[in-house]
Every structure is written in structure tokens, then in C-alpha cells.
Amino acid sequence: MEDYLVRATGEEGVLALVARTTALVEMARQLHNTYPTATAALGRLLTGGALMAATLKEGQSVTLRIRGNGPLGSLVAVARPGKVKGYVEEPQVDLPLRGDGKLDVGRAVGRGTLYVVKDLGLKEPYVGSVELVSGEIGEDLAHYFASSEQKPSAVGIGVRVEPGGKVGAAGGFLVQLLPGAREDLAELLENNIREAGPVSSLLARGLSPEDILHLLLKGLSFKVHEGKPLRWACDCSRRRLREILVALGPEELERILVEQGEAEAVCAFCSRVYRFGRDEVEELVELSRLNRGQGTEKDRRSQEG
């Protein structure tokens, strides 16, 4: 079944999004060779990014970065409407199950900070951050919405990993109260969410995102809008990796030439390898020197002005 996201708006003042992300999370598992706990953590962040990006316009993007003190290290997800990519710093992390039999994502993430960067096409991106409340990611995203955007929200995200490591089900929901919402709406939604149960279990049972919407918004009048496909998408390119190498500086590039004779750059998001031969690296050294010289001249003129 393909991944997709559905959106619903309720007359009583509610916005709800539900996504199935099983295929794209499985793609991330295969690309990064993640172990079960790392698979669940990265899958949750990717799903959270997909949900948040669904509230943006075409051409806009959101980057979620978690820096925790747990064994996973940093996690990153970058999402545009319908497209998402990401990585985890330490993909081969797998901790013992919690007492309730669930993957211990909270301990793997640890304590730390969630950073949210929204590129809305303006001069400067919006940047927000909150301390992690649990490391379970869904709760942390809900905390971000409430404290940084002042939007009362419920976020449920889940990834079911099969015994062999494959992703059996993944997805999530975002439910937000809109300005002027009914006073009793929060309690009704909380009851619905509790009765529905974990979103990964619902998806594993074969429920569709539309089915889950009806469980979450039971007792409300709402309109379900057209579903939007979701997919893993990395936009890396040889040109972009060249720019990263140039930014290393001429000294570092020369060191690479002496030690390796060529350069190899790996995309952190999709693990694609780009190789640059000696002649091309020598060209990048000269380009890096030129860029540095231009920067120095610009700084000098700024000081004189």
C-alpha cells in the first residue's frame, strides 16, 4: 500500500492530519541499515516531518533536528509537502525492550533539544526549539506546538518493526484545536485518541488514514480533503556535494589529496557515494582558495566602509 496523508477540518474548530508512512520509513531503514530502535526513532521523526510539512505551501520546507545525549546521537528529518528525507547519527543502535514490550526510543534519544527550522520563502527562516520532554518524539512535537507556536495539539506517531527488522507499519496523526474551538472539544478528542489506541497498531490491522480520522474525530462533523501521496525523496547531487567539499577549505582538500589521492563524499540522507578524482579535487582546491580570497577582500572593504 502506498504512503499518503489525509487532512480533515471540523466545523467545531479542529484540524486533523493522518499519515501512513510505512514504505518511506522502510526505505530509510534500508538506506541507513538501521537497527530496530534506531528504525523506530528515525521513522517517528520522518513521520512528524511529513505531518508538519503538510501544513506548509509548495516550495516551503521544515527541518526537524533532535540532539539528545542518548546512544542515537543526532536525528534529522527534512520535509516538503509530500516529500521527506532524514538520517540518524548512530543507526546501529538497538536497546532492550521496555517493560511493556515496546521499543525504548525515549532512552535511545535521551535528554536534549528539539530544533525546528521552517523555510517559508522569506528572508530569514523561522527557528524554534524546545527541551525534549520524553524523547519519544510524538510527545516532544506536541510540546513544541504548545510552547513555541501556541497551538494546542495532540501528536501520535508509531513505527512497528517486525522480528526480522523490516518496518511492518508506520504512521501518525496531528490534531490541533483552531482559534474559537468549542470549550469541550479538547476532552472529547482526548477520549477519542485514548479509545483509538496506538496508530501503528491501527495501521497494522489494515485501517486506512481515513478510517483513523473517523476514530479520532468521532462525534464531530468534519470534511475529509483529498489525500496526498508521501514518499522518500533525496535531492542530493554531484554539484551540491562539490560545494560542500569547496567549503572544507584548501588546506583540508590538500590533506585529502596527500592522504587519499582523491575525495569521496557521501550524502548523509541517502548514503549515495560521490567520488572526485585527483584532477577534480585540485580544481576544487583552487576554487576554494578563490572563494576565500574573495571573502577576505569583501571583509576588508566592509571594514573600510
Features:
single chain, alpha+beta, Hsp33 domain, CBS domain Like, 2 domains, six-stranded antiparallel sheet, six-stranded mixed sheet, 39% helix, 28% strand, globular, disordered C terminus
Number of domains: 2
Helix content: 25-40%
Kindly provide the name of the CATH class of the largest domain: Alpha Beta
Segments where pLDDT lies below 50 for 5+ residues? 296-305
Order of helices and strands: EEHHEEEHEEHEEHHHEEEHHEEH
Number of helices: 10
Overall pLDDT, averaged?
92
Briefly, what is this?
This protein has 305 residues and is α+β, with helices and mostly antiparallel strands.
Structure, explained:
- The model is unreliable at 296-305 (pLDDT under 50).
- Helix 1 (22-32) crosses helix 2 (36-53), helix 8 (238-247) crosses helix 10 and helix 9 (250-260) runs antiparallel to helix 10.
- The protein folds into 2 domains: 4-232, Hsp33 domain (3-Layer(bab) Sandwich); 238-304, CBS domain Like (Alpha-Beta Complex), CATH 3.90.1280.
- The radius of gyration is 22 Å and the shape is globular.
- It has 305 residues and is of the alpha+beta class.
- Helix content is 39%, strand content 28%.
- The strands form 3 sheets. Strands 1, 2, 8, 9, 10 and 11 form a 6-stranded antiparallel beta sheet that branches. Strands 7-6-3-4-5-12 form a 6-stranded mixed beta sheet, covered by helices on one side.
- It starts with a strand and ends with a helix.
